[in-house]
Amino acid sequence: MPIEICKIDTVFSGNVGRQVMEYTVYLYTELVIRWNELKNSINMIRERDIMEIQYNKITQSKILLHLSDIHFGRNKDNNIVGDFLHKEQILDELIRCIVTSEYKIEHIVFTGDIAWHGKENEFEEAYEWFTKLLSELNLSGKDITFCPGNHDVNRNYVNFNRNLETKNIKVIDEIYEYENIFKMETPKENYNKFCEKMGVTPFHYPVKTNFESSYSIGCKDIGDEKSGFRIFSFDTSLLSVLTKVNSDHMFIGQPQVIDLIEGGLFETNRYKIAIFHHAERFLHPNEICEYDDRMATLPLLRDYVDLVLCGHTETGGKPVLYRQSEGAYTLTSGAAYYDDNHPNAFCFLQVDGDRRISLHPFAWSDCKWKAYDYKRKYKIKEQKRRRHLLGTMEGKTEFGVKSKEKGNYTISIHNFSIYNPENGMIKGDNLDDPNRKIDLSFVAPILNRGDAKFSINPPRTCDNSVEAAIQYENFCKYLSEINKTDSNSFYMKNAEGKVFFGGKNIKANVELQNIEYYKSLTKIEKYFDIRFKRPDRSNQEENMSVNILIDYIDKGCAEIPSLIECGIDFEKDEKVKLEKMIKSECSENIYLICDGLFICELHGAQMEFESIVVSGPYNFDKVDIQKKAEIFMAGDKRNVEFRLSSYGKTYLINKENRKSETTISFVEPYDYIIIGNMKLKWLCFTEIETKKEN
């Protein structure tokens, strides 16, 4: 309940009255003193707010130290694999490197993951290290700023919205409103105590007509108006404590950005820096791109600040710096310490007079911290250049082979290139056609007649294409046939039909594959709208599976290997049916029917289809099953053995393409049982789901 300052005019009697009166006067006196201090602060704020803001240059260069992701306590986690033997040495060397550098640090920014599990003892270890760093730099807690990371929260402290999911973005935005966000602050209890112990200056954020303070969200000023910074902090770790939230889809908090805009808090001549833990690729898509008339949060924020600092990636080496068009730079920092062998890294940032920044990154390498070497790692071994083009044939080019005995064979070629002559020879190929199904090239003499060579191969880019293999194999088959004849010739025509290259007496060395098998695969590809990886050869199981699929497509029905000695777990209704069959001494001709969902995995592709499997006739041992019929019907699990008749068959029936060939002759008299959840498997086929209805 708020305490109001007012004149005390109530008179109390007796000892109790004096005690209350004394306490009340004391409280009033204290409030007056604090009120005077507060008035001075308010006057200072008012003077700053009414100051005319001019966006001119910063008066002098400023140096920031950017650190992130040290993870104090990670080395004590038994579930983590890593080398931490030299952790203390590396972190001591890190302080020494920072202190002895040429850069005079204005402020330190740490973008999250101070700890590992958000535990108190982890923050105690962090406190000792950061205190030593500040002491060596002659700085204090007000000269360092933290924002929380996903490892700085204690998941044992979660007590609100535990089952929250991120499907409803409106709900998430409501949680991130400044007046609601405190409800999920409990997991950062140890982080908050750490910041307080460090003497960190808290952020402030607007709530209605007042300002609230926080070590996670809001804004604060560093330095003076002309050359200082205004830092805006956002808590992307807020939802990371929730088990149903994708840890790579975090939120900045759009309502907070809008409140800061509408509250005029971005209107300052100071250099404006936004900080949060998760780098862009770990944010929710709605924070990066516009969906459903909701503006994207990150681009919106970048429109109002000069620089965005974040971490979480734990990468090392060269820092990642990029800029939004007419917006802020974004710098993602690597881990200052992840383990002994990691490319641990940190960065000095220099903000010069015209608000441009320059980076001075350092990395742990060869057992010491040193400035990052910007030299390119790889050098040119050989300068690659395309051959000089004489020209490219526009439109379609036709390559043809003529044979009196075997007829003509033509191939349509796109983008056929001719190259400048070399040593009296001219070359051409169709490598400029990205969609080619066949590689064709030639070498021929220019002035005199002589031997011309042309080669045809399956394109490297179509190595997995069955269609390309068929085109190549068809041509190879044709060449193998004309090899036996003497009267043959070839030519190449341009789009106008003029021959520009030709010859006679083709002799070819060809090796034929199984073209009929490739044609079958093409039919299956077209029916199921899939693409196989071109096989060099096929085994018996694959051949049988292809034959089944071709019958399934062409006839609507295919015979498959029988379901031998099936153990069946019946549904309730089928148990009743089976009981009647046993008691009525009905026919022993039983057919099993399965209406399910199947997949076939073949040559790297997977086909999924609904189908019916009919198998039979089967018979069973009635004497045996009658003995256990009562306990079977009572729910006791028993496998009923069905034996396929010597003339029995099993069919896979195409539900979408039933033809006359799908008619199955049942042995009279007969009955059927619907089976389910059998996970049937034969050759390359597997049942993945079974329907209950017939």
Structure notes:
There is one protein chain. The chain has 694 residues and is an alpha+beta fold. Helices cover 25% and strands 27% of the residues. The chain contains 14 helices and 31 strands. The strands form six sheets. Strands 24, 25, 26, 27, 28, 29, 30 and 31 form an eight-stranded mixed β-sheet that branches. Strands 3-2-1-12-13-14 form a six-stranded mixed β-sheet. A hairpin with a 2-residue loop joins strand 4 and strand 5 (210-214). Helix 3 (120-136) runs parallel beside helix 5 (189-198). The chain is extended. The two termini are 70 Å apart. The model is unreliable at 1-35, 41-56 and 564-568 (pLDDT under 50).
Entry keywords:
694 residues, alpha+beta, eight-stranded mixed sheet, six-stranded mixed sheet
Residues in β-strands, percent: 25-35%
**Secondary structure: helix percent:** 10-25%
Can you summarize the main beta sheet?
A: 8 strands, mixed
Shape: extended
Give the termini separation.
Answer: 70 Å
Give Rg in angstroms.
39 Å
Mean pLDDT level: 81
Task: Tally the beta strands.
Answer: 31
Low-confidence stretches: 1-35, 41-56, 564-568
Number of helices: 14
Q: Class by helix and strand content?
A: alpha+beta
Summarize the structure.
This protein has 694 residues and is α+β, with helices and mostly antiparallel strands. It is built from 14 helices and 31 strands.
Write the SSE topology.
Layout lengths: L13 H37 L11 E6 L19 H13 L7 E4 L9 H17 L7 E3 L22 H7 L13 H10 L4 E5 L2 E5 L3 E5 L6 E5 L20 H9 L8 E8 L6 H4 L8 H6 L4 E5 L8 E4 L5 E4 L12 E7 L5 E9 L2 E4 L17 E4 L3 E8 L5 E6 L2 E3 L5 E5 L9 E7 L7 E5 L8 H17 L5 E6 L5 E6 L10 H14 L11 H15 L2 E4 L6 E2 L3 H12 L6 E13 L2 E16 L1 H6 L1 H5 L6 E15 L16 E4 L6 E2 L2 E6 L4
Parallel strand pairs: 1-2, 2-3, 7-8, 8-9, 9-11, 26-29
Antiparallel strand pairs: 1-12, 4-5, 6-7, 10-11, 12-13, 13-14, 15-18, 16-17, 16-22, 18-19, 19-20, 20-21, 22-23, 24-28, 25-28, 26-27, 26-31, 27-28, 30-31
Helix pairs in contact: 3-5, 9-10, 10-11
